[in-house]
Amino acid sequence: VPKKLVTTVSGCADDALAGLVACNPGLRLLQGHRVVLRNDLPAIRGRVALLSGGGCYVGKGMLTGVVAGAVFASPSVGSVLAAIRAVAQAGAAGILLIVKNYTGDRLNFGMALERARAEGADVRMVVVGDDCAFATPGKAGRRGICGTVLIHKVAGALAEAGASLDEIEKKVMAAAKAMGTLGLSLSPCSIPGSKPSFQLAEDEMELGLGIHGEAGVRRMKVLPADKAVETMLKHMTDPSNASHLSLTPGSSVVLVVNNLGGLSCLELGIVAGAAVRCLENRGIRIARALVGSFMTALEMAGVSLTLMRVDEELVRLIDAKTTAMAWPNILAGPVTTRREEVPAPREAPRKLQDETGTGPGTARVERVLERVCSTLLDMQDKLNELDRGAGDGDCGHTHARAAQAIREWMRSRPPPAVPAQLLSALADVLLELMGGSSGVLYGLFLTAAARSLQGRSDAPAWADAMDAGIEAMQRYGGAAPGDRTMLDSLFAAAQTLHSLRSPGADPLQVLAAAVQSAEAAAEATRHMEAGAGRASYIRSSRLEQPDPGAVAVAAVLGAVLE
């Protein structure tokens, strides 16, 4: 039996309703019943009240109340009748029951309607059947599924505007006839405490499901999102399908892309884009699109598409304000994949500072960089091996990418000889092409170091540049010396480089000592507990090797010295 996050299986429907009401000051429970009502019932005096099955569409501009059953079960006659009486006593000028076309719902709402009429209430019932799955619907007719939410919205906007029960009933029935929905799923779902409702193989998807976990009308191999959407729309609009929705080029529609409960937001966005593209290619105008979880089947990993043909009046009713929490806050405006993109901002051309510093000659810079690149490429496998114990085993690949990017860059133009410009240019190359957090960390280090070197190239300036780079890495990366990261090697080298600030210091000797410090610090990371980076999520007992980032930094410093 699949796992569920419930308190008790028997109380899960009541607990869910209690949570819904607790978090929404506009809602109240009806004592003794699974009924949620608007908090401001006196406001419906003289207006038509709207009641339906479960859901979160209660509020001004939508439903007056909802009556819930147990999971995937119709609400009881007694609860429907109690909801009708509650709104009648609040002074409603007529009551419309909006019922999804399932036998149990029709029976229970119908029985409650008959009893309420006997008590003198003016109650009507609209049965919504928007399912396009069955090419030849049986006696039960088309099932009521996600399109019902649009009916709630249209009826709610009309009621809020003061329309009569006759007018609402007539307009809602017309809207329901101009609507179709089709579901598609990659998985079944399961009622708490029960096994899944049906089985699907790993490579299968199911077309034409209902909203109670029941299987669909056709099983097929899993398709890419765009092909799956095309298949759905073709089935929904196929004239040989008795339950199809007629759509001709030039038609205006409202589109609902509904998560059946367990689809990721990523997949839902992809499906929504594919649906808009597919409809546009058929010459259909999408007046509005709603994307989200509107009518779900527990954790079913699937989606349904609803299309409603609309005119200007229906669009106005869809756009009308509502306080119902589940209705999305969408901007009024047409839907298209051809929306103009915001132009990318142009980078201002860099001014080449006319620095007169005595930077190393271009040929020397190329020699040093080539040594760094060869070192990193030779170490690729070693760094990957070190990274496997603590990360995702790609440290060598990442540094090799950096080496190849620097080589390409040197082939395309001679590197600048002025230190500040050289480091700044290298930062750009690594940020664009190295990837991973290492690319950003090196980019931060080099950018800050370059800023510190502007207008300077004396020996103490390099010590300052090293400190500035490390400070930037710490500020944004969050690591500190001793956290078993590349920072350990850098910090050890920087401490040694402070000697450059002493008059008469021999830069080459200091650099050689700094490289030794970095190598010793890299080796020392073998015995450290990771305090930052991906390795910090691994138990320290598994980290028996030195940190790959620290080893790479020590190797780079060594290559510069050679």
Automatic annotation (TrEMBL):
InterPro entries: DhaK_ATP, DhaK_dom, DhaL_dom, DhaL_dom_sf, Dihydroxyacetone_Kinase. GO terms for molecular function: ATP binding; FAD-AMP lyase (cyclizing) activity; glycerone kinase activity; metal ion binding; triokinase activity. Residues 337-361 are annotated as: Disordered. Residues 337-354 have a biased composition (Basic and acidic residues). Its EC number is 2.7.1.28, 2.7.1.29, 4.6.1.15. GO terms for biological process: glycerol catabolic process. Gene3D superfamilies: 1.25.40.340, Dihydroxyacetone kinase, domain 1 (3.40.50.10440), Dihydroxyacetone kinase, domain 2 (3.30.1180.20). This is Triokinase/FMN cyclase. It comes from Melanocharis versteri (Fan-tailed berrypecker). The lineage of its organism: Eukaryota, Metazoa, Chordata, Craniata, Vertebrata.
